[in-house]
Amino acid sequence: MPGHEGVKPVAQNRRARHDYFVEETYECGIVLKGTEVKSIRQGRVSMKESYAAVRNGEVFAEGMHISPYEHGSFSNQDPMRPKKLLLRKPEIRKLHGLVQRQGYTLIPLRLYLKNGLMKLELGLCKGKHTHDKRTSAAEHDAEREIQRAFRDRRNTDG
């Protein structure tokens, strides 16, 4: 589609990287109905408690809330309905095996428009324990302090 190049972020699951170690990411399409796309384009989507599950050889995003479109009527869908994700069969088989045997979880990380199409970044994640979260927070704080020191030094030198 000409004129639709680039990636435009729509929604992000910020909590996911705090609660999980993201091992791999997959880009997948998402099946939407009716006015859901218009609602998503307005940013009326919440991915806070969402996860993905493999059922009957298909992957579904559960718990993703897409608010009903304001100007829609009978065509509005249930905000919490499971949304089918579009992945290739070998990827689905691999993810299904990892989720069942090795204790991974599939978490939607972000939703974005790419070349006019709605895409979802799906993460293959392992849960963090409390001490892991503390370590991650300490590393993040240390990195922030280093950046602040560099910025302060650059401002005093200039």
Characterization of this structure:
With 158 residues, the protein is an alpha+beta fold. Helix content is 34%, strand content 35%. The chain is built from four helices and nine strands; from the N terminus they run βαβαβββββαββα. The strands form two sheets. It has a seven-stranded antiparallel sheet. The longest helix has 28 residues, at 130-157.
Brief description of this entry?
With 158 residues, this protein is α+β, with helices and mostly antiparallel strands. The chain has helices spanning 14-19, 36-41, 89-102, 130-157; strands spanning 7-12, 20-30, 45-46, 51-55, 58-62, 65-66, 83-86, 105-114, 117-127.
Residue fraction in strands = 35-45%
Report helical residue fraction.
Answer: 25-40%
Outline, from the CA principal axes? globular
* Extended strand count: 9
From the alpha-carbon coordinates, what is the Rg to the nearest angstrom?
Answer: 19 Å
Instruction: Report the mean per-residue pLDDT as an integer.
Output: 85
Task: Provide the descriptors you would attach to this structure in a database record.
about 160 residues; alpha+beta; 7-stranded antiparallel beta sheet; two-stranded antiparallel sheet; 4 helices; 9 strands; about 35% strand
List the helices and strands and how they pair.
Blueprint: E1 7-12, H1 14-19, E2 20-30, H2 36-41, E3 45-46, E4 51-55, E5 58-62, E6 65-66, E7 83-86, H3 89-102, E8 105-114, E9 117-127, H4 130-157
Antiparallel strand pairs: 1-8, 2-7, 2-9, 3-6, 4-5, 5-7, 8-9
